[in-house]
């Protein structure tokens, strides 16, 4: 009877020990499910859950790599944004400078072209002034304008060898001398005699014909 009681007590202690072990393993399994695969590996190798060096290093490595990649991506985005911003600013600055820049002058005309245009302009003033009536209130201003244009024309072209030898220049110079001489001698109140006026206008026509031929 005593032997049976001792055996039963031993069996009971073994069952209690097994249940305690199962409970302990069960708690670890729950902890593994709660904390992840690292602690499961630690329990399987009988390592304490509080010291998972290998798994901890692996997690740290992955985290550092992800942070590095994320940093690189952010830097790439910022770099592209800065590049686009700089390009946009440069384009805007160029547009502003272009808008503020003065318009380019037209292609420079040759001496002969300027001479022909300005000579024709003086001819128009001559005809307008000579055809005004002596009582016209605009006569004094017209004569003054013609005198100023005559002085400018002579001063500009009489020393230009390319045009001073042209027949148009000789005819025009003669016309301007005749008109200036008359008004300087008799004043604007005394009209140019008809014959002299006709001769002056004829020389003006000859000047235009010479200009048309480039002479």
Automatic annotation (TrEMBL):
This is Photosystem II Psb27 protein. Keywords: Membrane, Thylakoid. Residues 41-58 have a biased composition (Low complexity). InterPro entries: PSII_Psb27, PSII_Psb27_sf. The lineage of its organism: Eukaryota, Viridiplantae, Streptophyta, Charophyceae, Charales. Its main location: membrane. One of its GO terms (cellular component) is photosystem II. Gene3D superfamilies: Photosystem II Pbs27. Signal peptide: none annotated. GO terms for biological process: cellular response to light intensity; photosystem II assembly; photosystem II repair. It is found in: Membrane; Thylakoid. Residues 41-75 are annotated as: Disordered. Pfam families: PSII_Pbs27.
């Amino acid at each position: 009877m005593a032997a049976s009681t001792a055996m039963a007590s031993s069996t009971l202690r073994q069952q209690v020990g097994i249940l305690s072990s199962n409970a302990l393993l069960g708690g670890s399994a729950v902890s593994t499910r709660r904390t992840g695969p690292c602690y499961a590996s630690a329990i399987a190798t009988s390592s304490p859950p509080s010291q998972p060096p290998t798994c901890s290093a692996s997690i740290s490595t992955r985290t550092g790599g992800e942070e590095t990649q994320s940093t690189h991506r952010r830097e790439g985005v910022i770099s592209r944004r800065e590049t686009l911003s700089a390009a946009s600013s440069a384009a805007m600055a160029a547009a502003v400078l272009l808008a503020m820049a003065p318009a380019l002058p037209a292609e420079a005309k040759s001496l002969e072209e300027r001479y022909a245009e300005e000579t024709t302009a003086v001819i128009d003033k001559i005809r307008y002034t000579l055809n005004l009536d002596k009582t016209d209130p605009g006569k004094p201003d017209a004569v003054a304008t013609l005198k100023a244009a005559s002085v400018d024309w002579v001063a500009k072209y009489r020393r230009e060898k390319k045009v001073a030898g042209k027949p148009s220049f000789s005819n025009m110079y003669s016309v301007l001398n005749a008109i200036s001489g008359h008004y300087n001698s008799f004043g604007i109140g005394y009209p140019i005699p008809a014959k002299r006026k006709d001769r002056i206008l004829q020389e003006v026509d000859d000047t235009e014909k010479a200009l048309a031929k480039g002479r």
